[in-house]
């Protein structure tokens, strides 16, 4: 197979779930797959060796934060992100657009690009699609995302439509500016919760490919998980996914709720990322087959059972709920580290189980079992 081929190993006959393999310069990604988030070139509290032990195939870093510190030129001088952070497996960099648009009160936007204020020192910066591609090419990830305009929820239809048009034009410019042959460039679908605008966004992305004379290697689906109820997302997600090319990976951006992942795989999604597993871990919360566990709760103080008896991760094999509660209550950093390891394993393993279910032709049963389980009740 050649670079950026997306092989489909199995398609579920009763849902849109699929199992695939995406070829990158640093290895093959088996899908469906959850990507741990290493925003600043580190998954908080987790070493690259531990990520490998947890089964992580690919991690995500963020161009906005790395551009501010330490700077794309420093990372390029180190040999790129893989060398800089000691991770010899695939990496995806988000363009940073979501972070910039979340700081709307400091943002200045026009058709050519945007200006924003640094969260570090208040300095002003200007990005265009071209300069964003230059930054991401210096970072050297295996998959890079176009610069787009992400709209929150709720939003006026006119505002969403303008974002669709602007994002599509920026997709074209990103495609034309991107020159690294060892990087896959993903276009991003916008359109809020409006299905016609979502489908229009996909049409415009295909027109951008034709204009640029080169296609995208995959597609991100942005603008979900921005404040809307999950049921609202699922009103359109399946139709959006099915409108994208069959043999290109589909990446639902910023989603990490376990139940949402299971349902989204059934809708045809291949890749996910979210800070949820590590952020909630640092707050003392664990994912488990019993649902969410708040380790600050006093009921765990004399509980010497594994964190999740159904889990085979290193944390559950070696530590008890009582010990981890002690670490959390005493604000020992090891508590957050152990919970982060467990939560990441939980989602990675969940997607591995989803993949096996697709390969075995039983995804409908797998999803039904999950939705009826104790684990699904808290998500």
Itemize the secondary structure elements and their pairings.
Elements: E1 6-11, E2 18-24, E3 27-31, E4 33-35, H1 48-54, E5 59-62, H2 63-68, H3 72-77, H4 81-85, E6 91-94, H5 97-101, E7 108-109, E8 114-117, E9 124-127, H6 129-139, E10 143-145, H7 157-177, E11 184-189, H8 195-212, E12 218-221, H9 230-234, H10 237-243, E13 250-252, H11 258-266, E14 271-273, H12 276-282, E15 285-286, E16 293-294, H13 314-318, H14 321-329, H15 333-359, H16 363-371
Helix pairs in contact: 6-7, 7-8, 11-15, 11-16, 12-15, 14-15
Describe the overall structure.
By secondary structure, the protein is of the alpha/beta class. It contains 16 helices and 16 strands. The strands form 4 sheets. It has an 8-stranded parallel beta sheet. It has a 3-stranded antiparallel beta sheet with strand order 1-2-3. Helix 8 (195-212) links the parallel strand 11 (184-189) and strand 12 (218-221). Helix 7 packs parallel to helix 8 (195-212) and helix 11 runs parallel beside helix 15. The longest helix is centred in the last third of the chain and has 27 residues, at 333-359. The radius of gyration is 20 Å and the shape is globular.
Query: How large a portion of the residues is in β-strands, by DSSP E?
Result: 15-25%
The stretches of 5 or more residues where confidence is low (pLDDT under 50) are none
Strand order in space, largest sheet: 4-14-13-12-11-10-6-5
What radius of gyration results from the CA coordinates? Answer: 20 Å
Number of beta strands: 16
- What's the pLDDT, averaged over the residues? 96
| Category from helices, strands and their pairing | alpha/beta
How far apart are the termini?
38 Å
Q: Work out the helicity level.
A: 40-55%
Describe the main β-sheet briefly: 8 strands, parallel
Inertia-based shape = globular
Distinct helical segment count: 16
């Amino acid at each position: 197979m050649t670079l950026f081929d997306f092989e489909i190993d199995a398609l579920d006959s009763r849902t849109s779930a699929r199992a695939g393999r995406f070829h990158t310069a640093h290895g093959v990604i088996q899908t469906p797959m959850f990507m741990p988030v290493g925003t600043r070139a580190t998954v908080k509290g987790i070493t690259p060796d531990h990520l490998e032990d947890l089964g992580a195939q690919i991690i995500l870093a963020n161009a906005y934060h790395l551009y501010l510190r330490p700077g794309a030129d420093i990372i390029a001088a180190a040999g790129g992100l893989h060398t800089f952070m000691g991770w010899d497996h695939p990496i995806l960099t988000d363009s940073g657009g979501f972070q910039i648009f979340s700081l709307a009160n400091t943002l200045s936007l026009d058709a050519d690009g945007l200006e924003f204020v640094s969260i570090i020192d208040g300095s002003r910066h200007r990005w265009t699609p071209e300069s964003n591609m230059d930054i991401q090419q210096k970072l050297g990830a295996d998959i890079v995302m176009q610069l787009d305009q992400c709209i929150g929820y709720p939003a006026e239809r006119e505002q969403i439509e303008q974002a669709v048009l602007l994002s599509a034009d920026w997709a074209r410019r990103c495609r034309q500016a991107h020159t690294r042959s060892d990087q896959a460039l993903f276009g991003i679908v916008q359109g809020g919760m409006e299905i016609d605008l979502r489908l229009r966004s996909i049409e415009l992305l295909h027109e951008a490919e034709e204009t640029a004379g080169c296609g995208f290697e995959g597609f991100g689906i942005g603008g979900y998980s921005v404040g809307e109820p999950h049921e609202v997302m699922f009103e359109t997600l399946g139709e959006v996914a099915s409108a994208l090319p069959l043999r290109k990976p589909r990446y639902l951006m910023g989603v990490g709720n376990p139940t949402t992942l299971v349902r989204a795989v059934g809708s045809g999604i291949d890749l996910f990322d979210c800070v949820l597993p590590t952020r909630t871990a640092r707050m003392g919360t664990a994912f488990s087959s019993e649902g969410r566990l708040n380790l600050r709760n006093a009921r765990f103080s004399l509980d010497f059972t594994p964190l999740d008896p159904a889990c085979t991760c290193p944390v559950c094999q070696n530590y008890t709920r009582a010990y981890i509660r002690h670490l959390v209550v005493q604000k020992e950093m090891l508590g957050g580290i152990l919970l982060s390891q467990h939560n990441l394993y939980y989602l990675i393993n969940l997607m591995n189980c989803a993949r096996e279910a697709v390969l075995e032709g039983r995804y409908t049963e797998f999803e039904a079992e999950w939705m009826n389980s104790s684990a699904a009740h808290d998500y």
